[in-house]
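Review form for a predicted model. The reviewer records the input and the model, then writes brief findings.
Reviewer: anonymous (R2)
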Amino acid sequence: MSRNDVLVGMRFTELFNLLTYLELAIMQFSWLFMLVLLSISSGFLFGFAAYKHGLAVKRWGCVGCILGPITYPLFSTHKRLADMKVWRYGRYSIEG
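Model under review:
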């Protein structure tokens, strides 16, 4: 029995239910794909920002991958505290 014979033999409601389940599976996969893409891009962006501001690159890249865009308030607060520590305990600057 071929695949076309099976599809022809199905009732309309069974075929509609099958298509509905397939659409739901594709929608769930697309949400998962978007979540993974957002997570990886956030990891790269926070890693680059950490490099630019002189913070731990691996740490902020991993936190960005795990938490995604929610990392921004943590990153900005940590960056501000690091700047205040440098300002308070000695004004070190590298000029190039």
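Findings: The CA atoms of residues 9 and 53 lie 65 Å apart.
Further findings: The radius of gyration is 25 Å.
Recommendation: see findings above.
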